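Lab notebook: predicted structure, single chain.

Context: the supervisor wants predicted structures on file for every construct in the current expression panel, including those that have not yet been purified. This is the next one on the list. No modifications to the sequence; it matches the entry in the shared construct table.
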Amino acid sequence: MYSDEDLDAAVAAGALSAGSVAAFRAHMEKARSTRVVDEEHFRLVNSFNDIFVAIAGMLVLIAVGWIAGTVGQYLIGVAVAATAWGLAEFFTRKRRMALPSILFLLAFAGGVFAAFMPKFSIAGIESGEFGIKIAAAAAITAGCTWLHWRRFRVPITVAAGAAALIGVVIGLLIAVMPDLIKWTNSILLVSGVTVFVFAMYWDITDPLRQTRRADVAFWLHLLAAPLIVHPVFTLFGLLGRDAGISSALVVMLLYVGMAIIALIIDRRALMVSALVYVLVAISTVLEKFGAVGVNVALTALLIGSALLMLSAFWHISRTRMVRCLPDAWQGKLPPLR
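Prediction complete. Output recorded below exactly as produced.
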């Protein structure tokens, strides 16, 4: 299984002609009855060897962290991060394996943050010390992920770096004004919108989605959606046991709005990333109104059927949505079928 980026690299190396690659893409579009740009490709598994290496790699990382923990808790993060970088040198830089690269990046970033993560304390929050330490740990993590990006160019790295920068902002705000911890959801909402705009920047630079930039945008959209949805649901009390019919309507309207945006920008990832919140909220409402025991099943049936219908008529729905937009906007979006 090869990505569009691999095909472009083959053309650049002279292994394939540009004409043959274009003909292959046209053939695949015809065979699948859809444009390649609409498939929203991203590299996850090239073969079963990716899964094999990912499992083995995670076992090694767990073992390294465990052994390091017997020496000192502070060494766990350092050992995991160092091992993940070393594994990436071969499996990411040389073998270019997708799934192991993602896992090793997450282990690296998580290890770096864990190495500098301060211990939580109420006194630390009130004095601002905890916020400063959180900001420092997140800043170091952001810097290390930038170095990882410069070395390996794994698309998810940009999203990991963006998450770390959000941690820096939250930490600094809490350090300056400890009372702002009560406004964490509002800060996350603003952060989510900012990440979404950043994702659109990457998307606009590759509307045909044939390069790594489209993969970077994919992961940023996955990060942006929960950052936007979780605060909104929490602020409206949609995840609590006191949710009612009005809450259910708000849930549906919010998700419909996200579906419209996802259609316009041609990004299903935006909906999938927020799906769990919708399922929890609607399930809670159904349980309150007597559907105890089958509330999860009814929720899954409702949402699943709606998503399948949307997938079946995705191209038709998107065409009607996009054609209502100004021509200048249409020119920056993935082309219509």
